[in-house]
Amino acid sequence: MNLKTLKKELERIKKMGFVKTHRHGDTGIGKTLEDLLGIKENNIPLPDIGGVAELKSYRKNAKSMITLFTLEPLPKGGDRDRLLLDDFGYSKIDNQRSKELHSTLSCKKYNNQNLKLSVEKDKIRIKGKRRRLNIFWDMESIKNKFNNKLPALVYVLSDTKIINGTEYFHFNEAYLLEDFDFELFKKRVRVDNIVAEFRMYYRPDGSVRNHGTGFRIKVKKLDDCFSRRTKLI
Question: For 3-231, CATH number?
Answer without folding.
Answer: 3.30.70.3570
